[in-house]
Specification:
Blueprint: H1 7-19, E1 25-31, E2 37-45, E3 63-67, H2 77-87, E4 92-96, E5 103-107, H3 120-127, H4 132-136, H5 144-158, H6 173-188, E6 192-196, H7 199-216, E7 223-225, H8 235-242, H9 250-263, H10 280-286, H11 305-314, E8 318-322, H12 323-336, E9 350-353, H13 359-367, H14 373-383, H15 393-404, H16 410-448, E10 454-457, E11 464-467, E12 473-474, E13 487-488, E14 531-532, E15 548-549
Parallel strand pairs: 3-4, 6-8, 6-9, 7-8
Antiparallel strand pairs: 1-2, 1-3, 4-5, 10-11, 12-13, 14-15
Helix pairs in contact: 3-5, 3-6, 5-6, 6-7, 8-9, 12-13, 14-16, 15-16
Length: 576
């Protein structure tokens, strides 16, 4: 006992256990340079068989202590689980008897890390008047507020404290926190994370401020801009997309070819380095995704853009990230109870939040979810293309099976073909059920907060607002593609001014078929906010029986619902 505790601490342990009537007591011990416990505090008291383990106050070099009233000091499974968890954080674990005469060292205490303090003189030597920045920066102006802010950041790093700083425009905030952060990282070999809200500030830090400090102050350090996985190109997925002809339409196929050419000489494989902004559908098909990553088993692992970037981040002294990526890392660490090993980011203990007033909005956006009809249709569309049944992941799998399976497996192929075909056909049914669930959830939430549901159907100029409470609203037939919306059966008489809508142009139905078109450009008369025109007709004044103008103010007042002969996708979409 004397090798682990001072005599005064042994007496304090006995007294605390005696005051708890011999029940279990949970202590936190603080050690000296020789790793001897010189101070204890009682954190919790329990009964004869257990006690609450209060772990939040523990710091590196501390020791958690509890007693076993039975006198048997062998740790239980629960003891070992807690000892393992705290040991990874640099906290030791002891078990003692009620008389504090015997101790079992489950995890030996760790020697406290001696950190080098940041002295104001060192910071002033870089930022102050006559410092390195003043000598190298043309037109240098002394900014007392900047230096004061840098001293505050340095003191927060020295004391493991928190500092909330508000500074006006022109203070030079980025240099005021970068200088102490860099000095701390160099002198203590401890990584510092700088998190911002905007890409512009990240680019300023990486391309301007940090290189300037490296040149002006002669500081040798490594700083890396860390981006989310989805920003990087996956070589394997790019190769798979390129081997599937007809995956995209002509314009998007050109984008895919341009990405393949760019990838040959790309420096870091980040989407930001492209000379154009690819469509989301194209980039989603080739970007890096965690659930499709083979990691070390992937043949492209050695030259993988994403893993190369992560290896560079692991070697950096300063990491520049955005708030969303920082929150993703913290959420994963909370879920896995991991604060010492790499998660999304390499391990770190010091964080500087620039643009911190945006953190609340970033957290709300990151930890909340948004589900829409279009987003769900887009996910299902990856399994089976809504307009091209021969495209999508299911069709791709079926093609690969047909190419790879020998003729002797014909029976197996037919069985798999039937199963996959059933899955493909079930996509539409799943979408219909999802839409009903989404509408039910929206209406339920709206009633809970005392509001009415107003949804926006459509995109771009052809979209229109529609009211869910309109009695004339009718759902589209199930034979329509999932990208098609419904429309109002009485557009010209609807008291809620309900308009016909189409969320997205769909190649399998004509804009004039069944009351779907919401584009005024299709109508030759300005009186028609919502127009249904028969094929080949551009003017409401020459409307055959196939359709007509929905506006009662139009000169062509011969409104008629289109006949089945005017429908491009199916007769069902022209009838309600």
């Amino acid at each position: 006992m004397e090798q682990s505790f001072t005599p005064d601490i042994i007496d304090a342990l006995r007294a605390a256990i005696r005051d708890a009537d011999g029940n279990e007591v949970f202590f936190l011990g603080h050690t000296d340079e020789e790793r001897v416990v010189v101070e204890v505090e009682v954190l919790a008291r329990g009964h004869q068989g257990a006690v609450a383990a209060v772990l939040q106050p523990c710091r590196y070099g501390d020791v958690i202590i509890h007693n076993h009233p039975s006198g048997v000091l062998e740790p239980s499974d629960a003891d070992l689980a807690i000892a393992s968890r705290m040991g990874s954080l640099g906290v030791g674990c002891y078990i003692i008897d009620n008389d504090a005469s015997a101790v079992y060292r489950v995890v030996e205490p760790f020697r406290r890390i001696e950190r080098a303090r940041l002295e104001p003189e060192g910071i002033a030597a870089v930022l102050g008047p006559g410092g390195a920045v003043a000598q190298r920066l043309p037109g240098y102006e002394d900014r007392p507020e900047q230096l004061r802010m840098a001293f505050t950041v340095g003191e927060a790093l020295n004391t493991d404290g928190l500092a909330v700083i508000e500074a006006g425009t022109g203070t030079g905030k980025s240099l005021a926190y970068l200088v102490p952060a860099i000095l701390w990282a160099k002198e203590n070999e401890e990584r510092v994370v700088v998190s911002t809200n905007t890409i512009n500030l990240q680019e300023q830090l990486i391309r301007k401020d940090i290189p300037f400090l490296q040149r002006a102050a002669g500081l040798e350090f490594r700083a890396v801009l860390v981006k989310g996985r989805g920003n990087y190109l996956c070589r394997r997925r790019l190769e798979a997309a390129g081997s599937e002809p007809g995956l995209f339409e002509d314009e998007k196929s050109g984008e895919l070819a341009a990405i393949r050419a760019w990838a040959e000489n790309a420096a870091d494989g980040s989407r930001d380095d492209l000379s154009f902004s690819p469509h989301a559908e194209v980039w989603d098909e080739v970007c890096s995704e965690a659930d499709q990553c083979g990691r070390a088993k992937c043949p492209d692992y050695g030259r993988c853009f994403f893993h190369r970037a992560r290896r560079q981040a692991a070697q950096a002294d300063v990491l520049v990230v955005n708030h969303a990526l920082l929150l993703t890392d913290l959420a994963l660490r909370l879920q896995t109870d991991n604060y010492t090993a790499a998660a999304v980011l390499p391990p770190y203990d010091r964080v500087i939040l620039d643009e911190a007033h945006h953190l609340e909005d970033a957290a709300t956006s990151h930890f909340s979810g948004q589900t829409t009809r279009f987003a769900f249709a887009r996910v299902l569309g990856r399994l089976r293309h809504p307009r091209k049944p021969d495209q999508g992941l299911l069709a791709r799998l079926l093609k690969q099976l047909g190419d790879e399976l020998p003729d002797s497996f014909d029976e197996l192929y037919r069985d798999l073909h039937g199963r996959l075909d059933g899955l493909s056909g079930g996509c539409q049914a799943l979408f219909d059920r999802a839409v009903q669930t989404l509408e039910w959830a929206g209406e339920t939430l709206a009633r809970a907060v005392g509001e009415t549901v107003a949804e926006r159907r459509g995109g771009g100029k052809s979209g229109r607002w529609w009211r869910r409470g309109c009695g004339s609203w009718r759902r589209p037939p199930t034979s329509w593609p999932p990208t098609c919306g419904g429309c109002c059966a009485a557009a010209r008489t609807c008291p809620n001014r309900c308009r016909t809508v189409s969320p997205r142009r769909c190649s399998t139905w004509a804009p004039w078929a069944g009351g779907c078109c919401s584009s005024p450009k299709r109508c030759g008369s300005s009186c028609c906010p919502t127009t249904i025109v028969a094929p080949g007709s551009r003017s409401p004044s020459a409307v055959p029986a196939g359709g007509g103008c929905s506006s009662p103010g139009c000169a062509a007042r011969r409104w008629r619902w289109p006949t089945a002969s005017t429908v491009a996708c199916s007769a069902a979409s022209a009838r309600w």
